[in-house]
Protein 1
Amino acid sequence: MYVDLTYKVIDQESGDVLVAVEFPIGYVHGVNDILAPAVTEELEGKSVGDVIEVPIDCDQIYGSRDEELVFTDYIENVPEEYREIGITIHTENEKGEPRGFIVTRMDEKTLTVDGNNPLSGRKVIFKLEILNVRGATDEEIEAGGPIGVAPDIDEALTVPLQ
């Protein structure tokens, strides 16, 4: 089944919304793994309009925080295009493996980047709302998600996910 949903990631400790995706994302249930297995399991059997909340320990998905992936340098050593909090700097390690570092702090003299996933070390709640469920096309099944134009959510079916 093809599913459109929105979600929020809420920090269990503070109650803060860490991520909010309000534009529908689409996926083919049972074909791809864009969602954590615990979330996919909770979506099983649900229908349009259902809202689910799934507690997740992000260390199980992204690993524990590694403070060796946090670096601070003098700001003059950092190219100007990276001098903005929230910017991701894409690099490769000595093995050629890609790694992203997010600029997390900056002052007049220094800039700090963090190579950890922003959710590492957190316990969160994934809150999802199902907007649309319909039979997936062969092309969507092959791709594991939407093809071309997003489906019309006004034509949502009320069939359960299976």
Note: The radius of gyration is 19 Å.
Protein 2
Amino acid sequence: MQYRIDKKTGGELSILSFGCMRFPNRLGIIDMQKTEEIIMHAIKNGVNYFDTAWIYPGSEDALGSVLRKNNVREKVKIATKLPVIMFKSSSSSINFDKYFNQSLERLKTDYIDYYLMHMLTDMDQWKRLKDWGIEDWITQKKKSGAVKQVGFSFHGSGNEFLQIIDDYDWELAMIQYNYFDENFQAGVKGLHAAAKKMPVIAMEPLLGGKLAIGLPKDAVKILEEAQSPTGGNSSPAAWALNWLWNQGEVTSVLSGMNTIEQLKENIKSAEAASAGMLNDTFKTVYTSVLESIKRTNKVLCTGCNYCMPCPVGINISGSFAAYNARYSMGYFEGMKQYIMSTGFTQVKSASPSLCTKCGICENNCPQKIPIINELITVKRRMEPWFIRFVGVCARAFLGKSRKNK
């Protein structure tokens, strides 16, 4: 494993980090046997930064259990996050300790290496936290040793990002960054500004998996036929990761690996990568792929699920993924995904047709997608009369009835 220097501590962070939002699971329940296998394989191969959050269901507890069972807590850096969205008024400031202590308990540790403000979007949000006493609280936690370094994950506009990094002595920033989102949110300008002050972690390197398994067929062909910067041919995922590791400003790339095969492939890529490895020939490959993607993708959803749960049960990200798949992977693949992800043949529907336009999803969306309007479009495109008829027949055959609210 290769490492890059944490500018604040002088320590080393593995260039491949482990994102713990999507551990292996069965029917929504974390598979601890597979999770332990993948975490321990990562640690044995030099991955030393593990990212989780209070709001990731079961994630902190699973990570903490594996680290304690195998006595490897001191070999890794744990990053977890304060759920900023849970604080609605000044009276909520008394709950900073509540969420922090719950994270400690779940992680089975007495300190957090990197404690992040989760999902900062603008200066107003950060100012409210300051008004509620977050700076004094951080100072107290760092003095006690319960927090080693403090940072934030960002999901807002570029100008807001630049203001936030200049307003506090942050020790780490996490931004959404990949070759499709080079100028989205913090973007390359924000990356360069932050990297002068602190380590920067790149999240969503595969755009929720879309740059690995959701690319248009002609884009996949371009990557498969191109000579890889590390020699030979590489997978679409490796191309996406290499684009990031090529940039020395990126301290580490956060990947949500949930199979041992994904982990092994990414470790292999990390061992061969280097800053500045992409010449003009390689860069033209990315340009060609981007042109292909932009011709097919309809909704720029990463599948982060911050819009979930929907109050009426709509599978928002699943609907968008299926809609995009219809154009990038073919009609039948898209419709198959849509039928499976929206409960088309089940008792309880998760269809966009249930939308009440409450707007909660749009308020929570890091990508600022006009979700309500997009759901209307998805319903129109993905639920024509003959598809609805198929659903009715399937439910009748199965002896079930769909319950729309």
Note: DSSP finds 17 helices and twelve strands in the chain.
Protein 3
Amino acid sequence: MIPTERKQDFYEHLLGRIVVLDFTALSTSMVHPTLLTIFYAFLLSFILGTVLAILYIKTFQGLSYSRNFLHCLVLCPIITATAMQAIGENVARGIGMIGAISLLRFRTNIKDPRDMFFIFASLAVGVAAGVHAYAIGTIGILCFTAAVLVLSKTPFAHGPQFDALLRLQLKRDDQTVRDLEKVLLDNCKHFAMISAREIGQGDSLDYAYQLKFKNQVNQHTIINSLQTVSGAKGVNLMMQDSIIEV
């Protein structure tokens, strides 16, 4: 029988060896990465990219967001980490990577500065994971998340979030507009007119409203109620999930 004290010493020694091996694997240089460090880099890139995408959804203040942009936030760190590990500390590889990227033409316009910062955050995550700076990447994203959440709950967050965009044509008549706004008041928590323009010979106006529905109201209820407004034509109700760009 092995004494209990010797068993404890053996288990403590084995645990210490495992910790040392794991720490050694995480501390390998960029020149000679191990399979474990490569796996950690890609896993951390995916996790932190997903955190960024969820944070973007939870703090979004506009009418709609692009699902392709969310995919970009998740995939960009993985691609960046791949490039950083492929380059390593080789200057020639870095120059070659710059030349390869210069062949691509990125024609997507970023209209919201907030989206640009999320893209930079995803790139930073990929770079940190690619150079095996796991603690820097994790702490950086935690600080970024905290800052975004604080800003979203303070007066810096402006404007209500709407459910849909309503476009319709009405006769140039004050009573018709009052009838329309009465319908919107009955069915919406709040609404905002974002544009009004003349069409035809000026006899009609084309209106665009942003709507926030009441709890028991849906798009079918809104459309049925709008049928009671005399002179309403070309009713077009675009829900948030279906809008790509307004």
Note: The CA atoms of residues 87 and 95 lie 9 Å apart.
